[in-house]
Amino acid sequence: MLQRLTIKNYAIIDHLEVDFSGNLNVITGETGAGKSILLGALSLILGERADPGVLFDKTGKCIIEGLFKVKKSQVAAFFQEHELDLEDQLIIRREVSATGKSRAFVNDTPVNISQLSELSGYLVDLHQQFDTLALGNADFQREVIDALVNKPNELQQYHQLFIQYQQVQKKYKQLHDNRDNANKELDYNRFLLDELSEAGFNANEIEDLETELQTLSHAEEIKNTLNRVYFQLKEDEQPILQQLKQLQSSLQGLAAFHKDMPALSERLLSVYLELQDIAGEVETINDHVQYDAQRIELVNERMALGYRLFKKHAVQTTGELLAIKDELTQKVDNVLNLDEQLASLELEQARLKETLEKAAAIITEQRLEQSAPFEKHVNTLLAQVGMPNARLKVAIIAGELNPYGQDTIDFLFDANKSNQFAPVGKVASGGELSRIMLCIKSLVAQSVALPTLIFDEIDTGISGEAARQVGVILKDLAKSHQIIVITHQPQIAGKADAHYFVYKDAKADKVTTSVRLLTNEERVNKIAQMLSGERPTAAALENAREMLTVH
């Protein structure tokens, strides 16, 4: 409930404070006095966009502050989610500087505008935002019926399931597109893979073949050199190894005569043993090196295949070629795996759709259950507000699954019992829309937790008995909600628990807007003026007193 609204430096308001009652608050005043300016200021603390052009004094800043009394359970989830301190009283403040910079605070804690707008949804229904044009909006019409069903948790569960369903659909489409694109390349990739698999190269094979070809191509030269080395080491008339052995023995024989001789003998022995080992390896290599024309031809063919594949795939090593083979294998396997994934997603889609259809059918049934009593109540209220021949009908048609069920909901209207129903937004006049909206809100308000409802000139296009009945409805609504109404109708003003008068005041060559709470006698005079003009007649005064005593 809005207890106090403080406005500083806004439009033609210098400074004012308004304390509201918890029931029916009526705001009246001359046209242009600034009644709607109050709601414009209020909209700022409800998250509306700030315009620096509204500053009364361009050298200062605009401050709008609202003091709300709230039930903690009503806003606990919001405060917990945004880590804000929750108290019995809630102070929302909005500051706008001349430069256009805007700041918002909840209990002196800074918040952003989106958070402010979200919080306002728990506190106030401002008719400027939720106006009669919304009657023709399909989302609004659905929200009205769902508010009457009053099972938000079921709708939320359905909505979350629908999001999951959409995500599976999106994933399926992406995979399907990927498979189609991959299939275009599959045959070519398979051809490349088969070619590499048939070649069957092992790691470093082409590099090893290059080395082998060098050996095979120079086999005769290699064998001649190895034979000469081996012969000189071991088989010459005076083999090097034999000479070294003799020299080593000679040095060893001098070991007793010089202290350095044993070391020299040992070193010479090491040389002898190393050359003996070399001779053995030379012999082994020599035995294995053979000129093999058939092998040379085979190696050349294998290398030619390798070089051709190098060029085809723009690589230079066997390792790179094998990496391409692995990549092609993965691509081919992925395409084959896509079919399995798609089949799995198809089953998941079918399962989710079946679950959604069952849940949507329940939601449809609940909406249908509420639509008939809703039509009856609205039509009764329409007669009460001066539209006895008007009829509202709710059309609920089940169709494709959507985020809110499977229904298309349309409010149809017939103003003259002609049974020619058409969408309400297309055929109802402005005055009719205002009264329809009031009737709808008076019903919906019983099902929603909004503590405060604000109506800006809901009485457009009506007068007399119809206006009185609008007042009756508002008075009844005020039993369980705080109602703030801007009106030009004395019949409505007479129903108020608190009557505020907006007027212009000239101070220091500046015209400002002020508001005051009227006393009972002042109310009689103002309502009489609304009935008969600036100078009310005795009859108007008497009529005004009657309006104030008959609630």
TrEMBL record:
Q: Name one Pfam family in it.
A: SMC_N
* Organism superkingdom: Bacteria
Classification via SUPFAM superfamilies: P-loop containing nucleoside triphosphate hydrolases
Q: Its Gene Ontology biological processes?
A: DNA recombination; DNA repair; SOS response
Coiled coil: present as a keyword of the record?
yes
GO cellular component terms attached to this protein's record: bacterial nucleoid
Residues annotated as coiled-coil are: 328-362
The protein's UniProt keywords, in alphabetical order, are: ATP-binding, Coiled coil, DNA damage, DNA repair, Nucleotide-binding
Q: Does the keyword RNA-binding apply?
A: no
What InterPro entries does its record include?
A: DNA_recomb/repair_RecN, P-loop_NTPase, RecF/RecN/SMC_N
Q: Which residues form the RecF/RecN/SMC N-terminal domain?
A: 1-506
Which GO molecular-function terms appear in the entry?
Answer: ATP binding
Family that this chain belongs to: Belongs to the RecN family.
**Its job:** May be involved in recombinational repair of damaged DNA.
Any idea what this protein is called? DNA repair protein RecN
Tell me the lineage of the source organism. Answer: Bacteria, Pseudomonadati, Bacteroidota, Chitinophagia, Chitinophagales
